Amino acid sequence: MEVLIMANNSEKPWVELGLTDYEYNLIKDILGREPNFVELNVFSAMWSEHCSYKSSKNVLKTFPTEGPQVLQGPGENAGVVDIGDGLAIAFKVESHNSPSAVEPYQGAATGVGGIIRDIFTMGARPIALLNSLRFGALNSPKSRWLFEEVVSGIAGYGNSIGVPTVGGEVYFHPSYENNPLVNAMCVGLLKHEDLAKGVASGVGNPVMIVGAKTGRDGIHGASFSSEDLGATEEKRPTVQAGDPFMEKLLMEACLELIKTGNVVGMQDMGAAGLTSSSCEMASRGNSGIEMDVALVPRREEGMTPYEILLSESQERMLVVPQKGMEEEVKKIFNKWGLEAVVIGRVTDDGIWRVKEGDQIVAEIPAKGLTDMCPVYDPEAQRNLVMDKIQNCDLIDLAEPKDYNQVLLDLLGRPTIASKEWVYEQYDYLGGINTVIPPGSSAAVIRIKGTNKGVALTVDCNSRYVYLDPYQGAMIAVSEAARNLVCSGAKPLAITNCLNFGNPEKPEIFWHFKEAVRGMGDACRELNTPVTGGNVSMFNETRGEAVLPTPVVGMVGLVEDISKVCTNSFKNEGDLVILLGENTDELGGSEYLAMFHGLEAGRPPHLDLAKEKALQQLTLELIAKNYAKSAQDISEGGLSVALAECCIKGNIGVDINLEDKIRPSALLFGEGQSRIIISATKENLDRIKELAFEYHVPFSLIGKVGGNQLTINGSEFTVSLPIFDIIDRYKGAIPCTMNN
Predict the structure, then answer these.
(1) Fold matches, 1-62+197-373 and 381-417+565-739
(2) Catalytic residue among 50, 173, 220, 511
(3) CATH class of the region 381-417+565-739
(4) Beta-ladder partners of 84
(5) Considering only Cβ atoms within 10 Å of each terminal Cβ, which end of the chain, N or C, has fewer?
(6) What contacts 368, CB < 8 A, 6 or more positions away?
(7) Residues 5-53: pLDDT tens digits?
(8) Alpha helices of 347-504 — where are they, by DSSP H?
(9) What pLDDT digit, counting tens, does each position of 105-155 carry?
(10) Does residue 511 carry a catalytic annotation?
(11) 1-62+197-373: what CATH class?
(12) CATH fold label, 66-195+441-563
């Protein structure tokens, strides 16, 4: 094999590929020689932060990952949890941030395609999509363009393939101006016996590439996603282009193949393409793989082994069937109009060996690309500027003169306002199993053939995480669980997408470690283990990082689909009850940022024991049909939560608050562990008794009815026509997008 030579004759070509001198010397030790051009590029991709998690792996080990409901935890293409009756849910969330910053439509579309493949690779039929999106301020033309194109890309792919997009979240903040975050989540349904894994084992078993042909798009996309976006403009790869119709065929063929029982292993070709899928499968199987890139179907002429190995062309899978089943595999894929080609075989020598015809172009121990990647413990140091930010005096802030106007302004904030402009572009009823569509606390999907459903949500308040990463991450988990509970679902488990800046900066890595610690503690207390996810580092441009954004994707089980609950007030005369207690907290709130221009203080305090009791109470109230509606209190506080209940039910409410708390904190503070329910008068005593049993504070605060939202306190009155709050809430984003 030729000695490494780079076109620019650099003395240290590995540095240009993102490898350090230490890593290059380690590569030489693993190989026992100098790597050649192909091998060095392969190591560069597989040892990138995006593929290897070399900076985060030790921290991620602290997550709770086990529980009786967990059938598959971290380490596979997706997590899998049991929902009873021999059925299971596969789910995962993953980022496609850097491609979406460069080419937002295709970046978002291929993010959807990639997460769908992760799910059907496990043997699960995708039944729902969600997304968590972050953009700069919506008054920025660039942010509006990114927002419009990303949403269009998600809709274009999801709608075409027929998987409904049923939920998500969208936040706007200046830190995301140049680095939008596009996190896609997919959920699938499978029978226990159909669970498939990404493993290559069985000496002599064929290695087959199936699906689309390979092109030059996305080469070195993994390395690109592991660097500061502003520092890599000249090295940006061509963003992959997705074909949802091809993916639909690929999905049906793969699911049909899995049901034959002839599949040893299967893996999506995501970041680093054929390289990552083949070496990871070999590594998991404690085996080797030998393959010939000359046999890979290509759509472009003259592609080199380097290009074939690192192409990130979409809608491709690597399959290891049992020996002798090659023709059966080809028959199934040909039926769906797809190619299935044998390109290699499983070996017992542990070597990832790549040939082009008779010539060996790369020969590396499979585990050298995976398990032997160096793992680091970057320095983590709390930035002392946080002291000043957290200790900002929020007690003596001036009160607003017009609380009506403040509430209207909050309802018009793009982060709080209705996201109908977004989800009306999605086919959220595809498959006709959507029981609760976007717009409520969580989406709920029916499990056909049973009385069950699954509830789904994604959550993260990144401002909280910035101000206190431990507390903020705990809140992300707790709010996700609260959203599921308000729909009548018992939380089962989470997946996460941890979006941060450069981990080599001590203050960034401190935020990361503390967020993981907080997320882990909340998951332990709420019995929602982490089944997998994604780490996305280097989300920054020219040294300016996004707010730390550890997104939580959570699934829950609805035992009886007839008892799901929504957040809309239902009937005139229903009583409105607050579960939990109001607190005098404004730190990190949307009100504080909007009215006082401050992103300061500490996020609201969270007591996990109180949170757990609140959730258990609410679940019982919904299961016994005592609660007619349920809404958690989050961004914008109590007043915004009440407004949303009125808007969804198109009915007014009359509220009386007796708390001795300053009006701004009472109305707009975002204190945790609070849920608003509505109920009939006949059930009031039963609810009060159960609240006492669970030691959850209970307050009867009002009555549903009329066409006004009225909130009376000892020092204030808010009174707004329902029409006005609906107009502001629903019109904010469309008006901005239409200038």
Answers:
(1) yes
(2) 50
(3) alpha beta
(4) 87
(5) C
(6) 27, 30, 31, 352
(7) 443 446 889 999 999 999 999 999 999 999 999 999 999 999 999 999 9
(8) 366-369, 385-390, 403-411, 420-423, 462-467, 469-485
(9) 999 999 999 999 999 999 999 999 999 999 999 999 999 999 999 999 999
(10) no
(11) alpha beta
(12) 60s Ribosomal Protein L30; Chain: A; (3.30.1330)
